[in-house]
Specification:
This protein is an alpha/beta fold. It has helices spanning 22-33, 50-64, 81-102, 107-128, 137-147, 169-180, 195-203, 223-237, 243-252, 257-270, 274-284, and strands at 2-4, 11-13, 39-43, 68-73, 152-157, 187-192, 214-216. It contains eleven helices and seven strands. The longest helix has 22 residues, at 81-102.
Length: 288
């Protein structure tokens, strides 16, 4: 995503401001590569950068290591987590099958076949998910594992929703059983923001995933992130950015990367100092 600046002829590429958590991504990959664990949990408060970390650090690294990745965001189906997970698995399997089949097609045919396949999947594949009274989760986990040739990785975002209702108890029990079965066992990362949800899902003795998986800490970014933005600011404007004040504001408002990036964007696009940029940002989108 690019944002045109008002005070500069340059454009701000938001992705280029990302500060990678390379060590965490490498640690997670090491755990899976050496089969030390098949399940990891990654919980931290909202707006700490978990989704950005997954999209820009971890998933690309997993793909480089030959893992097939599916991402299920339970917020898309808060009343039906089984459907959210099954659809993510199905989409990943179909996408992989299409890519492999298109490699054998003549160039002029690949687009036609892709369009026909997409229509067929939408009409038949998704409809089959509601047949026989369920979503065939076992089938999709098995196919996902097979498509990844044993290196299939499922990421479940907003995982705390699995423990949000007692009505989900049967599903969570089934999901745990399937994730432990040899034919449907895949690597999985549970990601969430609620400490209470994490406790209800993993830490209480009666939790559905008690003693399942390994809990990882999601570290806050430090002053090195602020310094990186200061260097970028000088490259773009030729002026100094008040890194110390920016860092103080970063700490004061919960160490949220998005807030700091908003300060940087306001500084560059409006030609403001950190203090003035903070006034603009906090007036328009105060931290929750």
């Amino acid at each position: 995503m690019s944002l045109s600046t008002k005070g500069s002829a340059a454009t701000i590429n938001i992705e280029s401001l990302h500060f990678p958590r390379s060590e965490l991504a490498a640690r997670m990959m090491f755990i899976f590569e050496h089969q030390l664990e098949h399940a990891l949990t990654l919980f931290a408060p909202e707006q700490k950068g978990k989704t950005t970390f997954l999209q820009q650090d971890f998933i690309p690294l997993a793909s480089q290591h030959g893992f097939l990745v599916a991402v299920a965001d339970l917020q898309t189906e808060p009343n039906n987590p089984e459907r959210a997970i099954a659809m993510a698995l199905q989409d990943s399997v179909h996408r992989t099958q299409s890519q492999r089949q298109n490699m054998t097609l003549l160039p002029g045919l690949s687009r036609i076949v892709s369009m026909a396949r997409a229509f067929s999947n939408a009409r038949n594949g998704r409809a089959s998910m509601t047949s026989e009274g369920g979503y065939r989760l076992k089938r999709w986990l098995e196919q996902f594992r097979a498509a990844g040739k044993g290196r299939a990785l499922l990421i479940v975002e907003a995982a705390e929703l699995l423990a949000a209702r007692s009505a989900f108890n049967n599903f969570t029990a089934k999901l745990r059983s399937l994730l432990q079965a040899p034919s449907s066992r895949v690597y999985i990362v549970f990601v969430g923001a609620s400490p209470e949800g994490q406790a209800n899902l993993f830490r209480r003795k009666d939790a559905p995933f008690y003693e399942f998986g390994f809990a990882l800490d999601f570290p806050n970014l430090g002053k090195e992130f602020v310094c990186q933005l200061g260097v970028r600011f000088k490259e773009v404007t030729g002026a100094e950015w008040d890194v110390d004040l920016a860092h103080d504001l970063f700490l004061r408002y919960g160490e949220m990367p998005g807030l700091l990036i908003a300060l940087y964007v306001a500084s560059v696009s409006h030609g403001l100092g950190v203090k003035e940029a903070a006034e603009v940002v906090l007036a328009t989108s105060p931290p929750s």
